[in-house]
Amino acid sequence: MGEQMGAPRFLTVAEVAELMRVSKMTVYRMVHAGELPAVRMGRSFRVPQAAVENIIAEGLGDWGQESAQSR
């Protein structure tokens, strides 16, 4: 059927982790903390690509600052 115009694209947790250069566990933590929206499909999560792009564009916002301080 192909992609419909305007239909949101969803990424797997592994794809998000690769794009953000973090571990899959970090992505799961962000989803469970409500920092990254996700849709549960069966036993896995799918994350809207637009949400990932927004977080990257914002430089990870407050979450990135907390992460850097804890190192």
UniProtKB/TrEMBL annotation:
- Domain named Helix-turn-helix: which ranges? 10-57
Q: Which SUPFAM superfamilies match?
A: Putative DNA-binding domain (SSF46955)
UniProt GO molecular function:
DNA binding
Fetch the InterPro entries from UniProt: DNA-bd_dom_put_sf (IPR009061), HTH_17 (IPR041657), SinI_DNA-bd (IPR010093)
Question: What Pfam families does its record include?
Answer: HTH_17
Instruction: Give the matching NCBIfam families.
Output: excise
> What name does this protein carry?
Excisionase family DNA binding protein
Write down the species: Georgenia muralis
